[in-house]
Amino acid sequence: MSTTIDVPESSKAAKAVSVATPIRPGGWKKGIAIVDFVLRLGAIAAALGAATTMATADQTLPFFTQFFQFEASYDSFTTFQFFVITMALVGGYLVLSLPLSIVTIIRPYAVGPRLFLIILDTVFLTLATASAASAAAVVYVAHNGNQDSNWLAICNQFGDFCAQTSGAVVSSLVAVVVLVLLIVMSALALGKH
């Protein structure tokens, strides 16, 4: 006597083999490289915007006659001149770093371009931070003065000039934050394999 066991169709369907989806080459490192490229574009806009805004900061107040006037201009302050030069350099560097950023998108596991970008990003982060901090100190004194040094606040008279310089400092600080993010992301991409 032979016994046969009938297996219902529903249990056969339950034994279907699942197919694993292949992992895309590059994966999360490619994603970091794309975000790196986009952040670089934002940092370019912030750095060059800061340099342009500061370089065009100028206001003249007439005093009694046209021949005797008070003027506030970025080139009257060496700190602001340093700011314009360094922000222009940072913006220029970021433009020149875009091809290397594209290389990291194409070759997400390449170590050389990422390491080179980390080193140069750190150098230009230092420049951007130094110029932003020094310009922020001058803008603070322009807004508030300093009683101990007998420095008067000039922003009551030169409102447009102070608004432009304050905007330039804020824009430069945005570029500094983006550069910090770029360094951290590149370090994370280098650290994990």
Could you explain the architecture of this structure?
Strand 1 (58-63) and strand 2 (65-73) form a beta hairpin. The protein has one domain (27-61, 70-191). It has helices at residues 9-14, 27-55, 78-106, 111-144, 159-191; strands at 58-63, 65-73. The protein starts with 8 loop residues before the first helix and ends with a helix. The chain is mainly alpha-helical and 193 residues long. The relative contact order is 0.16. The longest helix has 34 residues, at 111-144.
Percent helix range = 55-70%
Structural class: mainly alpha
The pLDDT mean sits at 82
N to C succession of SSEs: HHEEHHH
- Separation of the first and last Cα atoms: 62 Å
User: What's the alpha carbon Rg, rounded to whole Å?
Assistant: 28 Å
Distinct helical segment count: 5
So what's the overall shape?
A: elongated
What is the subunit organization of this protein?
single chain
Number of domains: 1
Secondary structure tally: strands: 2
Walk across the major sheet and give the strand order. 1-2
Strand content: 5-15%
Parts with pLDDT < 50 across at least 5 consecutive residues: none
Biggest sheet descriptor: 2 strands, antiparallel
